[in-house]
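Table S2 (continued). Query chain:
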Amino acid sequence: MSTLFLRDRWFEDLPVGEFHVFGSHTFSELEIVEFAEAFDPRPQSTDPVQARRNHRQGLVASPWLITAKWMRKMVDYMEVYAHGVNDGRRNGAGVAINNLEWLEPVRPGHTVTYTYEIIAKPDRVIREKWGLIRSRNEAFNQYSNKVMQFEIDILAERRPNRSNDI
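Corresponding output:
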């Protein structure tokens, strides 16, 4: 695991196989219900009594809450590792999300750990002076069961003054 993250390095310095653990989050019943009431109002996530009668047999987190927590953990992780770094580099943007799957329910009291791995650097020109990074992002509960997975394509700035500048 590198101590630097995407926004701290050039595209050329990001190796396939690099792995990061963004951190963990324990989901509370209140958090699950409040998020669902605001953004995904379905009984399995808003009403503990009704949730016991559905196919999940109990309250479960909205898949979008699980995904939102990944985003929060990723941003927090970037802030920690980029603290004090300001060398003029721009942050890359995500350009695609693929194969998003929620594999198991997350319940109140479950602790989910979020991971990130660079799995490819496709040789495609998306934007001038930017390279493409493909990452696998996964979330595991406290039993090591995968609860979510997806891939993201992210732009990373290329080192300036390359001999083969695009």
